[in-house]
Design brief:
- By secondary structure, this protein is of the alpha/beta class.
- The protein folds into 3 domains: about 5-85, SRP54, nucleotide-binding domain (Four Helix Bundle (Hemerythrin (Met), subunit A), Up-down Bundle); about 100-295, 3-Layer(aba) Sandwich (Rossmann fold), CATH 3.40.50.300; about 305-425, Signal recognition particle, SRP54 subunit, M-domain (434 Repressor (Amino-terminal Domain)), CATH 1.10.260.30.
- Helices cover about 55% and strands about 10% of the residues.
- The chain has helices at about 5-20, 25-40, 45-60, 65, 70-85, 115-125, 140-155, 165-180, 200-210, 225-240, 255-265, 285-295, 300-310, 310-325, 330-340, 345-350, 365-375, 380-385, 390-400, 405-425, and strands at about 100-105, 130-135, 160, 185-190, 215-220, 245, 270-275, 280-285.
- Strands 3-2-4-1-5-6-7-8 form an 8-stranded mixed beta sheet, sandwiched between helices.
- Strand 7 and strand 8 form a beta hairpin.
- It is flat.
- Bound molecules: guanosine-5'-diphosphate (GDP).
- Guanosine-5'-diphosphate binds near residues 219 and 248.
Amino acid sequence: MAFEGLSDKLSAAFKRLRAKGKLSESDIKEAMREVRLALLEADVSYKVAKDFVAQVSEKAIGAQVLESLTPAQQVIKIVNEELTALMGVSEVRLKSPKRPPAVVMMCGLQGAGKTTHSAKLANMLKKQGHRPLLVACDIYRPAAIEQLKVVGAKANTPVFEMGTASPVQIAKKALAHARDYGNDYVILDTAGRLHIDEQLMGELKDIKSTVEPSDILLVVDSMTGQDAVNVAKSFDDALGIDGVILTKLDGDTRGGAALSVRAVTGKPIKFVGMGEKLDDLEPFYPDRMASRILGMGDVLTLIEKAQTEVSQKDAEKMAEKLKKNSFDLNDLLDQMKQVKNMGSLQQVLSMLPGGNQISPDDIDERRLARIEAIIHSMTAKEREKPAIINPSRKRRIAAGSGTTVQDVNMLLRQFEQMQKLVKQFSHAPKHGKGRFGGM
Ligand code: GDP
């Protein structure tokens, strides 16, 4: 995951501070040196790292911090606040023009993730009840239109294309089309290049002046670190951008781009790409990102993910089952699928406080796959009433799922324990419905 190195180094520095109890000015200076190094190693630009540390030091060396009962805690709090401020304080949403459709112009270098993120954005808007239209303005790469159609179909969003007509004309016609068909968002997937060039900028400027986008979003690849920030600066100087979509934050990027973009360009990161799938798009919340970097987790995003994956109806159905104590292995399978839909187990864990301390080796996704295989090998009756699973049935299930009888026994035992727990809960006083709903 992104920020792993930075998180580790910062927590090591803070651990040393905590161990000291009372802090002197030189303790803080030493810690700030470590913070600065950690930022530089995460590929944060030199000036940004220097300014950041100066800012934190100024606040931390104040008498209030040094004389407080928990000085280390105060320093961490200041770092948290300053990290949040560095990334822009609060979330910045897409603009909504007075008269729809809103035109979102996606631009960026080739391979940054423009086409993928055009579709992810369409998918997100659709889930919010909008009617987006995707527009193929990349006429140079023959496969680009086809690629947009494929991802558009996955996002259940229509794609407007006019083959290799001029991109300015395509954008103009697409806007008219959207007005006719009631699309409230028009997402333009423009052409990319390997490097910034005059011709590309000229074309983007022409599109901009013709359709007056409400948002020009620059898509940049976080894996390219400082380069991503330089690209953002160049695009902003030449074209003027409204915000950035930072992609591939799921990879082992060091995270510097996320921390520097705002400070260098003055433009907010509006969304981050967290994977190749359509649902792997998150609005960018500076405070939550700061918490993730400091290993404090991001429980709010996790809850939101759970809420979009689990409908109210499903949650109520589950609450009802729990109340009647009729939770069976089918339900367990459903719950496992829902958690999986939220992302890989590692992704989910990384959002929990301290979750970034768990190494991928500790997470046994294969065990979960084995549990699923075992349940899949059971008949409908067996799933509803695991008590009927006798030794010969166990052998059949083990053979069918490629596991052993011990594995089957273990699952049945764990399920039995779970049922006991559920029983306790279902007899406990009510604390609002859907307690187990999402997870
Ligand atoms: P474009 O040239 O800017 O349109 O880039 P594409 O949308 O074709 O993306 C380039 C590659 O990056 C594709 O293989 C995508 O699947 C991949 N990609 C895009 N966004 C992400 C992301 O957030 N995470 C990961 N892991 N891969 C991504």
